[in-house]
Model the fold of this input.
Amino acid sequence: MKLMDEKGWLFGKLNLFDLLILLILLAGVIGMAFRLLMPGVKEEERLTATYTVEMVKLDECYATAYQVGDTLYEDGVALGTVTAVAVTPAETAQILPDGSVGLVEHVMRYDILLTVTTDQFRLQDGYHVDSQELLAGTSHAISNGYAKAIGVVREISYQ
Done:
């Protein structure tokens, strides 16, 4: 008895194409069963985190734009709630009357340090808040709905 006849039937009873479709369907069913029934596969654990964002040399209008309780966003994704705001006059290098160079407070520019708390922090292949990756030293364009500025993440701590 031949393995395959001239019409493509295996052992004269089973079509090779039908066998291929049957194997693909069987692999899909087995894959779904493993995905749905395997113990230990959990949804990602969300943690509470606090991080600081530093924005430097901003115009005077930004000094009062960010308030405690504001929700910060980046690209439409909520990053967290502002829990502390520290505003200080920006310092710039200037030639002093004695001819030396020194740092003086800028009259119309401010440095802003925001402390942000979020409960959407997760540790999976890095630090993430929702879908945004949050890394110390990276810049983020953050908005509270009224003002948008570019800040640098300085510190991240989580529980």
